[in-house]
Recover the amino acids of this structure.
């Protein structure tokens, strides 16, 4: 089994779950995902790795050389419905190619190297968040057992159908044997392309606060109610959306989004008496996340007071940011430069398995540019030369970490 | 047939179409509306008026005295579904009481006095706008013939069911015999109550421009897209809503409302790529309506340019404001003061038959306060003393106009 170009490998792998949209639908605990595991597993074995799928459904290929904690390298093979060929897959295929290149040049690691494809990174099928890497890192994932997909199949049932037992997922915990984690991924954003940089050196994975905000004013006749006697919930929502934008623009790496908005009663000639909206707030540091949280609360309270609205702000989820290991960040930057790549330090605005693993052991992420910032779409694309460069940098970082 | 208090008359009349909500449902061309006509018609006859229903379905009670053009006085008897007892009915009942009071004191008009209840002022059943007063004023209403209600019954069919022929509606045109129009109505807004005034002297009926605005930006990942690289259609919508509010607040009598808003794709973690919203813009003068129209266009174009959005602004309807006859406005203000009432000159933010009739002959409107600004609801209410005061002012204005 000879590996061709990285792009060719991704094309081949993309056949598993290829759908009519031209994209890839390879959700967690499906035959298509296990077929992809098989394809990767064959290539792991050809590289002399010991292949297993752990009790949480993570695919592992272990290069059992050297001593001490292993260097874990990889990403995930599951996709969102009608996703692309690169999200996740690049990190696994890249690890295969990186190990192959190190073997070609006769490099022998001083410590074990494990390639991993974590189960269900996307979380779209059951709504469980990172169950594979969580189990690997020692977190209890049995709480996700009753989470179910659109057909009513629970995670526990889906695992059973493939011969797995959620109750035994804790046996997947191997983090104690791991020294560091490296993940190559597409950026899924516009920054590298906009800045003309080839490699993104990820400094942090942003923390996220999700809110549901309800604003209650007074529905009224849009013609007979003078402007100064209105309690317009949509005006309140508009001020909050703009206030959030202003705040986020002024903070390094912070983003804010109002993505879902419902305006009631919804008559063109009725002043909106009620608005419900979501706020997605992200920040790269624990301190900036806490400050942003306070800013949201202040903003909402201030607008509600000034507009005479009743505000009900509920935080629906919270994940703290993870600042990646400074030494690994430094190392990735240096080896990337050593490979002749232009680099940019940047936070990751999306979540990744590295966020889970990185809480336990030093972790680093390497980004390659996404054409047009498109991801979670059949149109997801990265230029072949950028794919090769990413794998070169991953191989160099792996060599450094495993020496 | 003795008329008791105005409030008692409205209670009695409110039995026709009384519904389970505690309100009144008396839509156009229904047996309940004709039953109300019968109740009013009996009382007209008791006052010696000649009662007819014209070919457009308008109820007329003519006091055929004096010479020259008649003074038309009234409003409408149809309601919105689950409406109140006052909207429209007050103007008709008030006209009955006013004529009765003038007769009691032995006043003989120098010109004919016609009480009118225009058919289908609300327009909610068929979506036709002011068909009764339009036909009376000489406008062709056959274009509404195929307009249909929720059950698929067309206006033409509904008229046939009651023995009327839409093709003959033009025969209802009597505007040439009318000298002036007086309409007593509830305010349906909060101004009189907020200002502590008893009688609103309506200076104008606002013109209305309706718009549908579509904003197209770029749907994108809310985490990976930096703030400065976003084309957020909802941010554009928010700026436009606030810009409209600021504009309207700075102009006398102008209102602006964004009442219906759709945000797509609607994911909490997706930057809104598309927003559709409605704008309801009203102004009391032709000049202020034209200026407001230009302000909307400038605002939308400016925000779209600054935010990198594509904007499609479509004017879906336009009705010019009607400035009411200055002499009649002055007269109403004087007679109201003469009756000891506190007055406020104000525009009407809602449309009325006076807008249609007032384009052909001098018209005036008299407002009484609405408790809590509630209208089009079973809770519509005006204090009995305010009802009596309104009728006193109407009677005095009628006496003045008919002298």
């Amino acid at each position: 089994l000879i590996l061709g170009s990285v792009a060719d490998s991704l094309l081949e792998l993309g056949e598993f779950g290829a759908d009519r949209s031209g994209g890839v639908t390879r959700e967690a605990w499906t035959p298509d995902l296990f077929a992809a595991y098989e394809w990767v597993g064959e290539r792991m074995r050809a590289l002399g790795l010991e292949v297993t799928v752990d009790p949480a459904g993570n695919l592992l290929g272990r290069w059992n050389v050297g001593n001490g904690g292993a260097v874990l390298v990889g990403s995930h093979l599951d996709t969102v419905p009608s996703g692309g060929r690169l999200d996740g897959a690049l990190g696994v295929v890249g690890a295969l190619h990186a190990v192959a290149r190190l073997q070609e040049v006769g490099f022998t690691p001083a410590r074990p190297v494990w390639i991993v494809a974590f189960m269900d990174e996307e979380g779209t099928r059951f709504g469980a968040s990172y169950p594979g890497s969580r189990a690997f890192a020692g977190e209890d994932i049995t709480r996700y057992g009753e989470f179910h997909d659109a057909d009513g199949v629970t995670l526990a049932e889906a695992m059973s159908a493939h011969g797995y037992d959620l109750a035994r997922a804790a046996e997947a915990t191997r983090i104690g044997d791991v020294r560091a984690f490296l993940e190559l991924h597409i950026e899924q954003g516009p920054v590298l392309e906009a800045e003309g940089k080839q490699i993104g050196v990820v400094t942090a994975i942003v923390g996220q606060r999700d809110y549901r905000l309800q604003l209650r004013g007074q529905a009224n006749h849009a013609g007979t109610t003078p402007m100064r006697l209105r309690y317009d919930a949509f005006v309140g929502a508009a001020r909050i959306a703009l206030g959030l934008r202003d705040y986020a623009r002024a903070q390094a790496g912070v983003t804010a989004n109002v993505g879902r908005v419902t305006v009631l009663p919804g008559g063109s000639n009725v002043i909106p008496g009620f608005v419900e909206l979501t706020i997605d707030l992200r920040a790269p540091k624990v301190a900036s996340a806490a400050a942003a949280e306070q800013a949201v609360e202040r903003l909402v309270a201030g607008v509600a007071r000034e507009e005479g609205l009743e505000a009900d702000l509920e935080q629906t989820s919270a994940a703290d940011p993870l600042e990646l290991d400074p030494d690994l960040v430094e190392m990735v930057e240096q080896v990337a430069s050593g490979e002749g790549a232009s680099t940019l330090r940047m936070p990751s605005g999306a979540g990744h398995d590295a966020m889970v693993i990185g809480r336990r052991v030093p972790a680093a992420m390497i980004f390659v540019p996404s054409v047009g910032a498109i991801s979670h779409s059949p149109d997801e694309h990265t230029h072949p030369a950028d794919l090769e460069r990413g794998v070169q940098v991953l191989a160099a970082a792996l060599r450094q970490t495993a020496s």
In short: The mean pLDDT of chain A is 96. Residues 286-307 of chain A form the longest helix (22 residues).
